[in-house]
Design a protein that fits this description.
The complex is a heterodimer of chains A (about 375) and B (about 190).
Chain A lengths: L1 E4 L6 H7 L18 E5 L1 H27 L14 H9 L6 E7 L8 E6 L6 H15 L9 H13 L7 E6 L4 H16 L3 E6 L4 E3 L3 E3 L8 E3 L4 H4 L5 H4 L5 E3 L12 H8 L9 E2 L7 E5 L9 E4 L2 E5 L9 E5 L5 E2 L2 E10 L2 E10 L9 E3 L1 E3 L1
Parallel strand pairs in A: 2-20, 5-6, 5-9, 9-10
Antiparallel strand pairs in A: 1-2, 3-4, 3-17, 7-8, 11-15, 12-13, 12-15, 13-14, 16-17, 17-18, 18-19
Chain B lengths: L11 H6 L11 E3 L2 H5 L4 H18 L6 H8 L4 E4 L15 E4 L3 E4 L7 E5 L14 E5 L2 E6 L16 H5 L4 E2 L4 H4 L8
The chains are: A alpha+beta (about 375), B alpha+beta (about 190).
């Protein structure tokens, strides 16, 4: 892996806006998307990442099966008790899923890629990965390759999901309409649905209704039979309509069993099931020795994460999840390039590795202020 | 090769062009009555969006303590009474009702966007010069579009006759999703 300074494209901001990505710059003027930098990987490094991603996804599916067979374990995941059967049933019957993004720490000089966490329910950076960095490559290094077939794989995955729906089935996509990034994400997914030949409707998350006769309904009163929610399960199960979900009249993507994988309690379970696996870090529900990262079981975007060295807090982020139970994970130092720590976001589309997106940050804890940077390989 | 061979966007570029950087749509379709709206959307959508627009309008329209003060700004017969006080004056007991310019309609952008309530701006208001034959309309003080010249100071009426089918149905429960996430700052992604 090499970090290179490269010339940004003239008017790159307008190019991104044309692709639906309006949030390319932070409010303080610092870039969110930074194309003055590009990472260059080797083909062998890409193969390593692809294999590690496929392997980790396989381990995670095995962990989900393990919990579905022993629903008592869901207490560790803070799944409300009344949802246990719903989650286990959804896993046992194999409810289809669309995607997820692993966060990996990897310094090729020191060993294999290590799993930091799995954003298996509502991963962000989709448009950045599938579209923005692809057009960057096309316009700046059209002869080079990129580990990124996310767009094509999404279309293929929708076709597979569509084959499970009735021919006249409609998939509703919801998001908070006032959050640019989320609206753009569902609009992009709607685009891939159209290209997969599936009918869809967009709806504001808070516009969804419920009626006795039809279950979840849209604003026209039509039943929502298939629903891409872009809203995390851990919040969904605590909303007012949560008991309505247990009626199980709507096929939801991501499916209920994904709440087991997008949860930090996955990390200790993986270590229990696959101790010393080369792609895993030691993790537990109790304090560990040495350099550790302490994370809330339920948290988002790097909030309330604490890095502890020899029992002393070395670095902590703030956030609204301070009351959640914690897990301890052995710290994997992120490789630093010119002082920038890099996290690899590695996509799983369906059940296969589909590409990566890189984020860099001066801080060793990646958060919403990190910069998304393009990559290529020879 | 590990890259997509081709990334085609069927919708995204068009949709993005309609979206301002602040997340608020700059364009949309203006409806001055439920009948207008029903030509484009289902009855339920029109009623829901109209009701949201009325709520937003009551929250955001400029407020005056007397009808005369409001009419001085917006013209004769342009104002209606509202129980909703302006922001920051919720505690003021001296005036139990307020006056604001009447809603003349609302604008719908894309499916996910909230409706934008509209009222006529003050005759002297600053803003882009109206096109000949069109009058500017305003929402929460900012120029958002134009109404056809034929549009008079007709008031929005949500009490327009409804179809019997809709009137007979109990209203469905709504708003049961999303509240937990609103309790946290930031979005739902991770």
């Amino acid at each position: 892996v090499k970090r290179r300074r490269v010339a940004p494209r003239p008017r790159w901001q307008a190019k991104l806006e044309g692709l639906g990505l309006a949030w390319h710059t932070h409010e303080d003027g610092r870039p969110y998307w930074d194309e003055s930098v590009a990472y260059e990987l080797t083909a062998a490094e890409v193969d390593t990442l692809e294999a590690a991603t496929n392997e980790l996804h396989r381990l995670c599916l095995a962990a989900a099966d393990h919990v579905a067979a022993d629903p008592e374990l869901m207490d560790r995941f803070l799944v409300p008790r009344q949802f246990r059967d719903y989650v286990a049933t959804s896993r046992r019957r194999g409810d289809p899923h669309l995607y997820g993004r692993f966060d990996l720490a990897w310094d090729p000089a020191t060993g294999p890629p290590k799993l930091l966490e799995y954003n298996a329910d509502t991963p962000t950076c989709l448009v950045e990965t599938a579209v923005v960095q692809w057009f960057w490559l096309e316009e700046t290094h059209s002869g080079a390759d990129q580990f990124n077939s996310v767009h094509e794989r999404l279309i293929e995955r929708w076709k597979a999901i569509g084959a499970l729906m009735p021919p006249d089935g409609v998939l509703h996509l919801s998001a908070y309409p006032d959050i640019d990034e989320e609206r753009a994400t569902v609009e992009y997914l709607a685009d891939t649905l159209v290209q997969a030949g599936l009918a869809h409707k967009l709806i504001g998350l808070e516009d969804i209704g419920w009626s006795e006769a039809d279950g979840l309904i849209d604003l026209s009163g039509a039943p929502i039979r298939f629903w891409f929610k872009l809203y995390p399960w851990e919040w969904l199960v605590r909303d007012q309509f949560a008991p309505r979900l247990l009626e199980d009249r709507t096929g939801i993507i991501e499916p209920p069993w994904k709440m087991l994988l997008s949860n930090k309690a996955l990390l200790p379970l993986l270590w229990e099931l696959f101790p010393d696996h080369p792609n895993l870090l030691p993790a537990a529900h109790h304090p560990l020795d040495g350099d550790v990262v302490v994370k809330p079981v339920l948290a988002r975007e790097g909030a309330n994460v604490e890095l502890r060295r020899a029992g002393t807090a070395a670095l902590a982020t703030t956030g609204p999840y301070g009351e959640s139970p914690r897990i301890w994970q052995r710290a994997a130092p992120l490789p630093a390039f010119d002082g920038n720590h890099v996290v690899i976001g590695s996509w799983v589309i369906g059940d296969e590795s589909g590409g990566i997106v890189l984020r860099e940050d001066e801080s060793p804890v990646t958060g919403p202020r990190s910069r998304v940077v393009p990559h290529l390989f020879a | 090769m590990k890259r997509s061979r081709h990334v085609a966007l069927a919708l995204l570029g068009t949709a993005a062009a309609l979206s301002g950087c602040d997340g608020r749509d700059a364009e949309g379709t203006i409806f001055q009555s439920l009948a207008d709206c029903r030509q484009f959307y289902d009855e339920d959508i029109c009623r829901t969006k109209a009701s949201e627009a009325e709520t937003l309008h009551a929250q955001t329209a400029p407020k005056y303590q007397s009808k005369a003060a409001c009419e001085a700004a917006f013209g004769g017969e342009a104002c209606v009474e509202t129980p909703t006080p302006p922001p920051g004056q919720e505690q003021q007991a001296s005036s139990s009702s307020w006056f604001m310019p009447a809603m003349m309609g609302f604008m719908l952008g894309r499916a996910l966007s909230p409706p934008v309530p509209l009222h006529y701006g003050p005759p002297s208001a600053a803003g882009p010069a109206p096109q000949p034959g069109r009058q500017p309309v305003y929402s929460a003080g900012s120029y958002v579009g134009s109404a056809p010249a034929g549009a008079t100071r007709a008031r929005w009426s949500a009490n327009a006759p409804a179809s019997p089918r809709v009137a007979a149905l109990a209203p469905p429960a709504r708003g049961g999703f999303g509240a937990t996430g609103r309790g946290y700052s930031g979005g739902a992604g991770s």
